[in-house]
Specification:
5-stranded antiparallel β-sheet, 30% strand, alpha+beta
Length: 160
């Protein structure tokens, strides 16, 4: 019986998965997460009064850059020719949180779930970095893949 963990060979050693036999298809992944904070911190972001500047604008650029550099951060990820990265931020006043959603696309032999997850996490880390002087107790949470499309395994959508 083979392991469902594809990054390990028959001897249990970590390896990069061989994707050379896979078809090149259009692949899309969407991920999201949020960072909770004090209401006063969310107000700083909303009003554009954070000491370091435009929190959402800088976090968006950081998230896009992170998606493009995922293979440099995650050891067994393949470098991919990303064709699109779209990052959105929303303010959740009720939960006192910033929500980040990233969609990454490629035409390739492997999926872009890791790139979407990395974009979200780095986007949220950037929010933390830019606002930590006002609120060191921010919490990143609910970071997950929402959906993926393309490839041999087809479409997958998270149960909500």
């Amino acid at each position: 019986m083979s392991s469902p963990l594809t990054h390990f060979d028959a001897d249990g050693q970590a390896h990069m998965v061989d994707v050379s036999g896979k078809d090149v298809t259009h692949r899309v992944a969407r991920a999201a997460g949020r960072i909770r904070m004090k209401p006063e911190t969310l107000a700083l972001i909303r009003e554009g009064n954070a000491k370091k500047g435009d929190v959402i604008g800088v976090a968006r650029v950081a998230a896009i850059q992170a998606a493009k550099r995922t293979s440099e951060l995650i050891p067994l990820c393949h470098p991919l020719p990303i064709t699109r990265v779209a990052v959105e931020f929303a303010l959740d006043e009720v939960a006192s949180a910033v929500i980040c959603t990233a969609q990454v696309e490629t035409h390739g032999r492997t999926g872009v779930e890791m790139e979407a997850l990395t974009a979200v996490q780095v986007g949220l880390l950037t929010v933390y970095d830019m606002c930590k002087a006002a609120d060191r107790g921010m919490v990143m949470e609910q970071i997950r893949v929402l959906e993926k499309h393309g490839g041999k395994s087809g479409d997958w959508v998270a149960a909500i």
